[in-house]
Amino acid sequence: MQKTFQGRRVLVAEDDDLIADLIGHKLRLKKFEVEIVADGAEAWERIRTGRPHVVILDGMLPGLDGLEVLRRMREDPTLATIPVVMLTARRRGQDIVNALALGASDYLVKPFMPEELLARVERLLTGAPSS
Fold first, then answer.
1. What residue numbers bound the domain in which 37 lies?
2. Per-residue tens of pLDDT for the chain, all 131 residues
3. For the chain, what is the domain count?
4. Less Cβ crowding at N or C end of the chain, within 10 Å?
């Protein structure tokens, strides 16, 4: 039986409309409730007020960048445990280390496979071990 995630909210902070639409479509197929924002300041506001179950965060957003949003989340005790998948074109080892050190739950480099992103989100929500 296929898992669905009805009632689970995912905030997607991505400024590329095509990527955002693709991610949103894939998540909705699994019955996630999806909200898409295109800049870091709006992402921060929606995280604070909506408390999503998972955040998919582009590293290079206009306004506040993804790492600043992540830093703020991890400093706020009410938001610190929300899983965050960084989805970014930044592929240098130091970029990955910095994001993980700030508390990213996972890190995926663009270009990416949508099915892999979905599997990572599902793993974060179910607590299943990564392979």
1. 9-124
2. 457 798 999 999 999 999 999 999 999 999 999 999 999 999 999 999 999 999 999 999 999 999 999 999 999 999 999 999 999 998 888 899 999 999 999 999 999 999 999 999 999 999 765 44
3. 1
4. N
